[in-house]
Design a protein that fits this description.
By secondary structure, the chain is α+β, with helices and mostly antiparallel strands. It is built from 13 helices and 19 strands. The strands form seven sheets. Strands 13-14-18-19 form a four-stranded mixed beta sheet, with no helix packed on it. The chain starts with a strand and ends with a strand. The model has no long low-confidence stretch (mean pLDDT 95).
Length: 434
């Protein structure tokens, strides 16, 4: 929040980071958005509507409100940036999130429906190349300095695409748009089949970082980010085998994990775009691993399994909390545990200071509590990973509190901030309507 701006006319804006002076890049903003959703949901609504208003004539959502980064900032609210894999997709997922959390009404969704359809048109137009049928082709993403757009498609981009299609299916049902519903359902099926045929390594039991001739053997941490967002919105795992997700995560842990977190990419045959860049830790990787490990496991879980799921996130955050003692400046990228032979070079901030990437660790609250929300349907449910007694957070748009179950089975809900009004039976805890 320390890089945010609140103007007299009511506009809320925020720098991408202290070392990158874009304003509200969609992909980076979403990495840090959960505390705003929980405490200041009106800021998320405002940005979502503004991104819609600033959509590019080509159909995609523009990356930023103000084009800066690597130079002086441009004029405020003159949008631009790149056509990206994790902007139109993430914005669409955000529309569903705001609706399910009650920050958007159905009329709000309908007011931006034409923009969403144009975004869908653009997204599908990126998925027709024969080198990556059904999947987004050569799109840049937040992992820009890894230059992943040199490959036909990537698992990271593809799961975000699938997540967007699943969200459009849900939203099309809400607005009664059957034509869009059928288009999104077809694209969803094509996307899942595309990942299975082009990116799933059936011999190694993991998702390849990218497809093409050099894809086999490559493993990218955070490649399931889109699946984690989708699951948190009640869209399921997006994959028909939780065992395969867990087997992929086991490969990540075996090949990418070191003392300070998950290295971003292992097994690349081409030269790295920057020396050592593939071994850096990007702040989203641990939280995505943690979320998907918890979401893919049967509940309740034993403490050893919970600790194993939390390990990559804990390794990254503990490095800042205890070794570097610098929680003021969470970097987007950190050097690996074996960056050089000198210990004071390892596990250090590498670039993008005061960055939002590590703040995706807030998704762990959802994964641990099993919270799923659809306030317009009068439904909030919790399926915690724990056996009683436990207390887990209740985190809604403008409302927070706790849900507890004691050893006798008594369930207690306490609201600390805001209000919660549900119909009888609308709150379900561990399968029990309350």
């Amino acid at each position: 929040m320390r890089s945010a701006m609140y103007f007299r006319d009511g506009r809320w804006r925020q720098w991408e980071a202290y070392d990158c002076d874009d304003i509200d890049s969609v992909h980076n903003d979403f990495q840090r958005h959960l505390p705003y959703l929980w405490s200041f949901p009106e800021t998320e609504v405002q940005k979502s509507l503004t991104w819609a208003r600033f959509a590019d004539p080509a159909g995609y959502i523009n990356e930023v409100f103000d084009v800066g980064c690597l130079g002086p900032p441009g004029p405020l609210d003159v949008p631009g940036g790149r056509a990206m894999a994790d902007v139109t997709t993430v914005w669409t997922l955000g529309v569903l999130e705001l609706y399910r959390y009650g920050a958007y009404t159905l009329d709000d969704v309908k007011s931006i429906w034409a923009t969403l359809i144009r975004g869908l048109d653009w997204q599908l137009s990126q998925c027709v190349n024969p080198a990556a049928p059904g999947l987004p082709y050569r799109l840049v993403c937040t992992y820009d300095i890894e230059v992943l757009e040199q490959y036909p498609t990537t698992t990271y981009n593809s799961f975000l695409h699938i997540a967007m299609m699943k969200a459009v299916v849900e939203l099309a049902v809400l607005v009664g748009d059957n034509h869009t519903l059928h288009r999104a359902e077809a694209a969803l099926a094509d996307g899942i089949n595309g990942v299975r045929s082009q990116l799933w390594d059936s011999a190694g039991h993991y998702f390849r970082a990218y497809n093409g001739a050099t894809g086999p053997g490559t493993v990218m941490s955070d490649c399931l980010y889109g699946a984690s967002i989708a699951h948190s919105l009640g869209l399921g795992l997006l994959w028909n085998s939780s065992d395969e997700i867990l087997s992929h995560l086991a490969v990540e842990a075996a090949r990418n994990l070191d003392a300070y977190g998950l290295q971003v990419l292992v097994g690349r045959r081409e030269p790295m775009p920057f020396v050592g860049i593939d071994t850096t830790h990007w702040g989203m990787a641990g939280p995505t691993y943690t979320y998907m490990a918890l979401a893919s496991s049967s509940r309740p879980m034993n403490q050893d399994a919970i600790d194993a799921a939390l390990l990559p996130t804990k390794a990254y955050m503990d490095n800042y909390r205890t070794r570097l003692a610098d929680q003021w400046n969470l970097a987007g990228l950190t050097t690996s545990a074996n960056w050089t032979f000198m210990d004071n070079d390892n596990g250090m901030s590498w670039c993008t200071n005061h960055y939002g990437m590590p703040l995706t660790h807030y998704y762990a609250h959802y994964a641990l509590s099993g919270q799923l929300v659809d306030l317009h349907s009068g439904s909030v449910s919790f399926t915690p990973v724990y056996t009683p007694p436990y207390t887990v957070p209740l985190l809604l748009a403008g409302t927070s509190g706790t849900v507890s179950q004691d050893a006798t089975g008594t369930i207690t809900v306490a609201i600390s901030f805001g209000a919660l009004d549900l119909p009888a039976g609308g709150l379900v805890v561990a399968g029990r309507p309350c």
